[in-house]
Specification:
Elements lengths: L2 H16 L5 H15 L6 H11 L4 H7 L11 E6 L27 H8 L4 H14 L6 E7 L8 H17 L18 H15 L5 E9 L6 H10 L3 E7 L3 H6 L6 H13 L3 E6 L8 H13 L7 E4 L4 E2 L3 H7 L8 H13 L6 E4 L9 E3 L6 H7 L7 H4 L9 E10 L2 E10 L11 E10 L2 E9 L17 H15 L4 E4 L6 H5 L4 E3 L2 E5 L2
Parallel strand pairs: 1-2, 2-3, 3-4, 4-5, 5-6, 6-8, 13-14
Antiparallel strand pairs: 7-9, 10-11, 11-12, 12-13, 14-16, 15-16
Helix pairs in contact: 1-2, 1-3, 6-7, 7-8, 12-14
């Protein structure tokens, strides 16, 4: 850009920044008017955001209008999904597509897969690419949840797993930093685990004080691969949440779909995960061969009436038919039929009505492009459809404050049995003069588990617009986390426990140190006086 054009651009953008803009339509009109005045092309939002950031302007309204997909960081964290390299899968599930050079059950035209392929599945490049995209769209991704997808994590080579997560941490540590080691590294299968472990611990230590902190790490696997050894390894890697491919809690349906495990494995895995302090997410697939809408609803309700299950989060993936799967051949032969849109919508409505307030529905559909779906749901905005139909839901996601500011609130405690332990869901909810409206907004919550000799906080989260560390957000950094933590400690003491453990994300360790917690092994721990 020549100096004269650069100066004109700078002047034009500065004029736009100073304009009284309050809506997206006003922004578009101002962009056209100012671009015409200076004889420039219409500015990209990312250009304006970059100048806005450099100007030190405090125009939160303009930032919000410019920000793309604002919902991505409304939950208080910046999710960054990365894929592992294609490895052989132990499962033979009838619904899974198989595509060359793509992880089992994924398709090459899914957005996350396309990004991974562009990076040749390199974790370092994937993380940096996503952080750059989030910043370009107006987000400030300084609190990151790494979500590793790509099939069954547990069957990957151990050395690859340590290298992969080490590279995710290194990418966050080096983001926007001018360093000699700010380059991708190839996986070397000959590296010793002891060496990789030391390198990983070094990057984790750096991340505790880095600008871009990984405060959560999610891994996905199968229930039949969960044991104590696996969970200890996951903790060394920094994992805080595990997604289980449960699909159904009916042995007959699982057998028909060649899942390779039964309900007993799901029950065992769920208990182990909770006792280790992990958050537990279930993947559920309504509409599988052998299921009916009635059976699916009964299974969904059983998740919360039977203490053996009680997942913290749910991904609701209606079964679809894709090429490359055995289910595709069954469908072509007339041996399988998907639910109609009408039946599926009613099932989701009924399921959402049954969700307790301590559960979060993360997703209602999987991000499979419509052209890859031969049969089954193609509605990409099911959540919005449900909202437009007036469907009421008490799940955490539906009650998040998003851009709302804290008003009147109260502390609430829900106690329920789960996997042989006592769970306390401590939340800060909105207060209303109308009892029907009370609790419609959740500002933050804490999951406390009392089991055996351990009192462990499995999750502490303050919801609202993502605010950088040290900045004043609408809900984050408002003192609610301190309040929730104090209440959890009080309950533990009252039940005779002498210490508290927290399954903290690596980047959140510094937060807990402020309240007297110290790192013991892979957990933050505090002994009560």
């Amino acid at each position: 850009m020549k100096n004269s054009i650069k100066n004109d651009f700078q002047e034009a953008v500065n004029e736009l920044i100073k304009s009284p803009i309050t809506t997206a339509s006003e922004l578009m009109a101002a962009k056209r008017k100012i671009a015409k005045k200076y004889g420039l092309p219409i500015f990209k939002n990312s250009d304006i955001l970059r100048e806005l950031k450099g100007s030190g302007s405090s125009s939160a309204i303009l930032r919000r209008i410019l920000r793309k997909r604002e919902i991505r960081t409304m939950s208080g964290i910046a999710p960054v999904a990365v894929l592992t390299m294609p490895y052989a899968c132990p499962g033979k599930c009838v619904y899974c597509p198989t595509e060359k050079d793509v992880p089992q059950s994924y398709l090459s035209n899914e957005p996350a897969v396309m990004r991974a392929i562009r990076c040749n599945y390199n974790p370092y490049l994937q993380v940096q690419l996503r952080l750059s995209a989030l910043e370009a769209n107006g987000h400030e991704p300084e609190k990151i949840e790494i979500i590793v997808i790509g099939g069954t994590w547990s069957v990957l080579p151990t050395a690859y797993k340590y290298w992969y997560i080490k590279e995710c941490f290194r990418a966050a540590n080096n983001f926007r930093q001018q360093k000699t080691d700010n380059k991708k590294q190839k996986y070397n299968a000959k590296l010793k685990i002891s060496v990789l472990s030391r390198q990983l611990q070094g990057e984790q230590k750096k991340n505790e004080k880095a600008k871009y902190k990984i405060i959560g790490l999610t891994l996905e696997t199968r229930p039949d691969y969960i044991d104590e050894k696996e969970l200890r390894e996951m903790r060394e890697l920094g994992c805080t949440r595990v997604e289980l491919g449960v699909q159904a809690i009916d042995d007959k349906i699982l057998k028909i779909n060649k899942r390779g495990h039964g309900v007993a494995e799901t029950v065992k895995a769920t208990k182990l995960l909770k006792d280790f302090g992990f958050k537990v997410t279930y993947h559920l697939m309504p509409g599988l061969p052998g299921a009916t809408a009635k059976k699916d609803l009964a299974m969904f309700k059983k998740l919360f009436s039977d203490e053996r299950f009680q997942p913290d989060q749910i991904k609701f993936y209606p079964t679809v038919v894709t090429r490359g799967s055995l289910l595709f051949r069954w469908w072509k032969a007339g041996k399988y039929k998907t639910y109609s849109d009408k039946v599926l919508k009613q099932l989701i409505i009924d399921c959402k009505k049954a969700v307790p307030p301590y559960v979060r529905i993360i997703r209602l559909i999987r991000d499979i492009p419509g052209e890859s779906i031969m049969a089954g749901n193609k509605i990409t905005n099911l959540r919005q459809v449900m909202k437009d139909l007036g469907v009421k839901c008490d799940c955490i996601r539906c009650r998040e404050p998003k851009e709302l500011k804290i008003k009147n609130y109260e502390l609430r405690i829900l106690n329920y049995k789960a996997s042989g332990g006592d769970e306390y869901f401590i939340s800060v909810d909105s207060v209303s003069a109308s009892s029907a409206q009370a609790g419609k907004i959740i500002y933050g919550f804490c999951r406390l588990r009392l089991s055996g000799v351990a009192a462990i906080i499995r999750e502490l989260h303050v919801y609202g617009e993502l605010a950088p560390v040290g900045a004043a957000g609408r809900v984050q950094h408002s003192g609610l986390g301190k309040m929730l933590l104090a209440e959890a400690e009080k309950i533990a003491r009252q039940n005779g426990f002498k210490k508290m453990m927290i399954i903290s994300g690596v980047g959140a360790r510094g937060y807990y140190r402020k309240f007297g917690y110290r790192l013991r092994g892979t957990y933050m721990e505090k002994k009560f006086a």
